[in-house]
């Protein structure tokens, strides 16, 4: 969401050549503008969207746009690139409004500095949702300044000149000047008032909304010439790995490092104190091995002899905890979080009552690139290079841990080889900084795959119990939902046991179902591991349970699942989330972002038609469907499965998303395709289990992400648009995931008659 607030103190800054050489490179001329006065946001009583995020938004052209004398336009991207294409999408928006030639556009990555760039947390599917408008204005401001510079040079009215195709043209004489020729003069001009800006008519967009633009760094990525966190090298750099406590909250009881110190290349062994609980983003402690190369550090770690004190979570067992959660949802002792109508009376009068419990295990984000960081802490400063999703949070935590002023901490953001929420937590960067300060030299800290799976911020384990009453026509008239799961709040506060409002607002308190009597309860559940963000977060268990249960109700009523789902969604209507129990709505203004059941119905009908819903299926094959609202977007999935000898194959998946207007259609399609594959893994194979407090999965041989035989053979993406570029945008990166698993298990039921209520399916279908 964009604010109408206009900064009172705008200033133009002509960047000196010295700072230019240090920043953007010789010959570049940068447009710069001052920031809003501190405290201005306090004048606004209620804030939503980007306004409500830490450090808000910026649309300053000189912060984001630079033009060199040769005409090369460099767009500074302040969000982290982890495969979602944000570097391309933001550059597309700026370049389109600027009227730049795409072949003349380059991208540079901003360091962590939210006071300058605005909010930089790359999570919550917010990058374009929050910055589409500001980036349009940044490009339009730069274009206007170029046009004004040309008008002054030609001594003609501004109304007679227009930027187009990387030149500014005078309509009367057809004279042109290139962007590079005008950059210096434009940089000396005042920045236009944002209220007076002339934004392009979307009908004239050259890049926004168009396919086949291509990633700005695709060539570099393909050739291996770009830099991920694990690629960084610094002169004189040492290498480190850490033996961390195998149980969360554990510590070193005794250490014999004599053999490790004999490993060739090992320089030093450093003990790290365990953090206080709750840990937030602090390192877990343990024993670090610092060496002249990573292999020597790993071999040195293998030679350590450590006796661990396992601490309070030594008895944590996945099986026992599942039983504990199942017991918790059996009673009505949980916190009442939603209550409409009279559920007890409606259940008592129902013709049919249906009860089901669903289990979703811990999951690890498991990005292809495990956490990695290089830190150089010397001479009163700290500089790091890391694959982080939250660079400003990283900067603040480093300043606190290193006891340095924030301005003496620099966070250089590399490309991320995947993130999925794991790299929002900078514990691994703090580890590198601690060891660099200890050694007085740059240190590269590497996590192995085993480290990543054993010490993640896991997606929460969950048990969801649902009970419904159906009337004589099979329509649901009562709905009771009890959800028990450890909360993300457990890493921030001592021993919370109930979900936070934002977790409940992910598909539970904001479920747009046309049922008159609804109650939801949240029994307590303690956390025994670090719980963290994982792509789509609590939407995963809520969507799995609710969309599976709706299919169960259809079966109990003898109804077609598609017909029943549409009936349960109800007629097209706009729902204020706050009126049905959701106080969060993904941080967005409910007036601008109502839940639109018409849009949810439309994506559902789209995938049903695409997959040929209702056609006769061969024996052992079936179709399943699910729909879900999350991250202010509406998504539906229809899946076709084949089950033979207990093995599940997925010949085809249709997925439709209505996220509003499309900025980068190729990236939307790729995000939906990735969500389908990731969701197939959640449905069929992926889980983290614990025994004696220890994660049982070590690598991709035991934590099973989708392989060729489990990935869908065909994925078709349908982009459904219900509004123009003047309407609010929805999220894209996360909302594709939640409906995938329930669509698959609903299809398994259609194929086999076996109802799957526990993820993953694994060997549940084998006799």
Automatic annotation (TrEMBL):
SUPFAM superfamilies: Molybdenum cofactor-binding domain. GO terms for molecular function: oxidoreductase activity. Residues 223-312 form the Aldehyde oxidase/xanthine dehydrogenase a/b hammerhead domain. PROSITE patterns: TAT. It comes from the Bacteria. It holds the Pfam family MoCoBD_1. This is Xanthine dehydrogenase family protein molybdopterin-binding subunit. The lineage of its organism: Bacteria, Pseudomonadati, Pseudomonadota, Alphaproteobacteria, Rhodobacterales.
């Amino acid at each position: 969401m964009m604010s109408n607030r206009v900064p009172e103190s705008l200033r133009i800054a002509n960047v000196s050549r010295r700072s230019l050489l240090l920043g953007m490179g010789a010959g570049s001329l940068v447009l710069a503008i001052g920031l809003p006065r501190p405290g201005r946001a306090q004048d606004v009583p209620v804030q939503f969207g980007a306004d409500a995020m830490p450090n808000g938004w910026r649309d300053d052209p000189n912060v984001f746009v630079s033009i060199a004398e040769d005409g090369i336009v460099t767009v500074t991207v302040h969000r982290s690139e982890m495969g979602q294409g944000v570097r391309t999408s933001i550059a597309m928006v700026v370049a389109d409004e600027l009227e730049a030639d795409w072949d003349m556009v380059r991208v540079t990555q901003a360091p962590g500095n939210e006071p300058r760039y605005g909010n930089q947390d790359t999570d919550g599917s917010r990058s374009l949702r929050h910055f589409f408008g500001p980036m349009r204005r940044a490009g339009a401001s730069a274009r206007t300044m170029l046009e004004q510079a040309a008008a002054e040079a030609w001594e003609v009215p501004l109304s007679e000149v227009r930027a187009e195709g990387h030149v500014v043209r005078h309509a009367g004489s057809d004279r042109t000047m290139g962007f590079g020729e005008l950059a210096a003069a434009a940089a000396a001009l005042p920045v236009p008032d944002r209220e007076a800006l002339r934004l392009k008519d979307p009908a004239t967009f050259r890049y926004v909304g168009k396919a086949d633009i291509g990633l700005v760094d695709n060539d570099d990525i393909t050739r291996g010439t770009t830099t991920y966190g694990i690629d960084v090298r610094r002169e004189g750099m040492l290498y480190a790995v850490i033996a961390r406590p195998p149980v969360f909250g554990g510590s070193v009881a005794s250490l014999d490092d004599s053999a490790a110190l004999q490993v060739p290349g090992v320089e030093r062994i450093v003990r790290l104190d365990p953090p206080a609980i709750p840990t937030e983003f602090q390192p877990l402690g343990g024993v670090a091995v610092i060496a002249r190369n990573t292999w020597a550090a790993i071999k040195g770690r293998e030679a350590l002899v450590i006796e661990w004190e396992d601490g309070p979570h030594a008895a944590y067992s996945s099986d026992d905890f599942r039983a504990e959660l199942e017991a918790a949802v059996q009673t009505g002792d949980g916190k009442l979080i939603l209550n409409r109508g009279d559920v007890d009376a409606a259940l008592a009068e129902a013709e049919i009552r249906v009860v089901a419990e669903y289990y979703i295990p811990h999951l690890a984000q498991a990005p292809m690139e495990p956490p990695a960081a290089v830190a150089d802490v010397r001479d009163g400063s700290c500089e790091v290079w890391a694959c982080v999703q939250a660079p400003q949070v990283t900067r603040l935590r480093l300043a606190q841990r290193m006891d340095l002023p924030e301005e003496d901490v620099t966070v250089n953001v590399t490309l991320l080889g995947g993130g999925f929420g794991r790299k929002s937590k900078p514990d691994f960067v703090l580890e590198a900084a601690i060891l660099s300060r200890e050694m007085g030299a740059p240190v590269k800290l590497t996590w192995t795959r085993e480290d990543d799976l054993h010490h993640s911020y896991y997606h929460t384990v969950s048990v969801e119990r649902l009970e419904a009453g159906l009337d004589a026509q099979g329509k649901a008239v009562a709905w009771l939902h009890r959800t028990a799961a450890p909360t993300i709040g457990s890493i921030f506060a001592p021993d919370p046991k109930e979900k936070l409002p934002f977790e409940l607002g992910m598909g539970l308190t904001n479920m747009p179902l046309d049922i008159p009597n609804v109650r939801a309860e949240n029994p307590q559940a303690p956390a025994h591991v670090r719980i963290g963000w994982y792509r789509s977060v609590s939407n995963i268990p809520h969507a799995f349970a609710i969309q599976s249960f709706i299919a169960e109700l259809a079966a109990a009523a003898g109804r077609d699942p598609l017909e029943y789902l549409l009936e349960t969604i109800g007629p097209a209507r706009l729902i204020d989330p706050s009126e049905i129990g959701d106080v969060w709505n993904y941080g967005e203004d409910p007036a601008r972002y109502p839940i639109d059941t018409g849009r949810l119905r439309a994506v559902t009908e789209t995938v049903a038609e695409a997959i040929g819903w209702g056609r006769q299926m061969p024996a052992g094959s079936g179709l399943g469907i699910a729909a879900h609202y999350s991250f202010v977007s509406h998504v539906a999935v229809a899946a076709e499965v084949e089950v033979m000898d207990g093995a599940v194959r997925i010949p085809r998946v249709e997925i439709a998303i209505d996220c509003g207007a499309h900025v980068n259609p190729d990236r939307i399609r790729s995000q939906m395709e990735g969500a389908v594959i990731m969701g197939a893994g959640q449905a069929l194979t992926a889980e983290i289990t614990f025994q004696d407090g220890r994660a049982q999965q070590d690598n991709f041989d035991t934590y099973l992400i989708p392989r060729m035989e489990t990935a869908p053979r065909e994925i078709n993406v349908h982009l459904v648009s219900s509004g123009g570029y003047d309407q609010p945008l929805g999220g894209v990166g996360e909302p594709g995931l939640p409906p995938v698993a329930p669509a698959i298990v609903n299809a398994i039921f259609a194929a086999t008659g076996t109802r799957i209520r526990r993820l993953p399916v694994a060997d549940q279908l084998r006799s």
